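Query structure, 256 tokens:
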């Protein structure tokens, strides 16, 4: 295992490379790169620009090999459940058909955005929906954005996780990776709920309970803006942070 810790744009970053079978066993992770940005409480974040710049610097290397090819941005989760709405909220702020108007070129041949919902809402496996879109457009990779859970209260709404190994939804109801949808999956996740144990009704054992902070909707709003802004700057290099902030604001206001 290779691990590296450093500070980028004032944000503590940890990079871990899981390479061997022993690494996978020790860390209970699949092979790949794992990056954590320690944002601190998102609801208390002051410098969005530096946070976005840090995310751009960490996410771009995961996407550079797909420049010039079609990609699919997938906003996973339930838009009606605040703690699970990071994916759909990010998709709402990242709309490539609009940026194609303002930018002369894109680093990708084509960008599609899809929100597959959850299997409980669609009665279809998320993998089925996403793999269908991937196949139809010939996507070279998927960027999956999703809320995640944590057992560490210090990370709750206080970190952004990146990996090129795919993503699995809470409860294991969806697993997006090359094995399930046919192309590599770059995942971007923010822990928005904490997993705790609660006594079961029959007293026979304990069951998992998810708790979200009261300000989770505010954290989602901030995180989705930062992630959408970072993806936009990677996809459209001539757009800087201030341009992205202006366009996303106009978009959410219904002006464009």
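Result returned for the query:
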């Amino acid at each position: 295992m290779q691990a590296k810790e450093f500070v980028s744009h004032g944000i503590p970053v940890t990079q871990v490379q899981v390479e061997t079978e022993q690494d996978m066993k020790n860390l209970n992770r699949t092979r790949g790169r794992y990056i954590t940005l320690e944002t601190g409480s998102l609801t208390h974040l002051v410098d969005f620009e530096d946070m976005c710049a840090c995310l751009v610097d960490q996410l771009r290397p995961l996407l550079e090999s797909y420049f010039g090819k079609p990609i699919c941005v997938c906003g996973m989760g339930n838009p009606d459940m605040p703690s699970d709405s990071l994916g759909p909220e990010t998709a709402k702020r990242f709309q490539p058909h609009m940026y194609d108007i303002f930018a002369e070129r894109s680093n990708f041949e084509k960008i599609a955005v899809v929100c597959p919902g959850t299997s409980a809402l669609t009665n279809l496996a998320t993998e089925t929906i996403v793999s269908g879109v991937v196949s139809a457009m010939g996507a070279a990779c998927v960027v999956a954005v999703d809320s995640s859970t944590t057992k560490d209260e210090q990370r709750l709404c206080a970190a952004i996780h990146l990996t090129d190994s795919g993503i699995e939804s809470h409860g294991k109801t969806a697993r997006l990776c090359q094995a399930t949808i046919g192309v590599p999956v770059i995942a971007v996740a923010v822990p928005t709920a904490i997993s705790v144990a609660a006594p079961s009704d029959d007293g026979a054992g304990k069951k998992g309970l998810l708790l979200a902070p009261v300000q989770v909707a505010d954290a989602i709003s901030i995180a989705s803006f930062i992630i959408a802004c970072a993806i936009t700057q990677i996809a459209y290099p001539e757009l800087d942070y201030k341009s992205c902030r202006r366009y996303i604001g106009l978009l959410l206001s219904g002006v464009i």
